[in-house]
């Protein structure tokens, strides 16, 4: 493993200044028209993103993607973090059920994790239902029972995608947004999101 990790570390050290200068970001374009709107939120927690989907019964489901060892097994050493960044590792799909929206609610308190920024979108209800069905089927068909993490406030199952710097929580969030009919351009690796003609919603 060390023989594989060292070259990747060197590559990242060489490329990191270029990535920082280029200011990797992803731009989200909203659909021109939405016939049957349903609310979706993109949440940014530091450099990590998750999405919050509103179901047909108005309950809400938050989904997140991360490194299994880091988020589930709580292996948060420097070695574990380096492995998660530079090597393809086991991915984790997280799920949290949230009560229906209410006036003046404190969403941050409900989900149990800090929200740096959040964006609210209106997308086609049928696309939201389809994405929820896809994600819920993964939980229902998982060969491993969901593992609940009280630290993360999420129930995790193994993801069918490996986790790496080239496919982290922000890349997964971008794919989920695309499935909802939103156009996402650019590289969201650092969680630097921009939305055309929209500003983040204050939490």
Would you mind describing this structure in some detail?
With 203 residues, this protein is an alpha+beta fold. It has one domain. It is 33% helix and 29% strand. It has helices at residues 2-22, 68-71, 78-86, 107-111, 125-140, 169-179, and strands spanning 26-29, 37-45, 48-54, 60-67, 91-98, 117-124, 147-149, 154-158, 183-186, 193-195. The strands form 2 sheets. It has a 7-stranded antiparallel beta sheet. It has a 3-stranded mixed beta sheet with strand order 9-1-10, with helices on one face. A hairpin with a 2-residue loop joins strand 2 and strand 3. It starts with a helix and ends in an 8-residue tail after the last strand. The model is unreliable at 1-22 (pLDDT under 50).
Backbone CA Rg: 17 Å
**Could you say how many structural domains there are in total?**
1
| Spatial ordering of strands, largest sheet | 6-2-3-4-5-8-7
Mean pLDDT: 86
**Uncertain runs with pLDDT below 50, 5 residues or more?**
1-22
Helix content: 25-40%
Please trace the helix and strand order, writing H or E for each element: HEEEEHHEHEHEEHEE
- Our count of helices gives 6
The proportion of residues in beta strands is 25-35%
Note the main sheet.
Answer: 7 strands, antiparallel
Assembly category: single chain
Rounded to the nearest angstrom, the distance between the terminal CA atoms is 42 Å
How would you sum up the global shape?
Answer: globular
Number of strands: 10
Overall structural class, as computed from helix and strand content, comes to alpha+beta
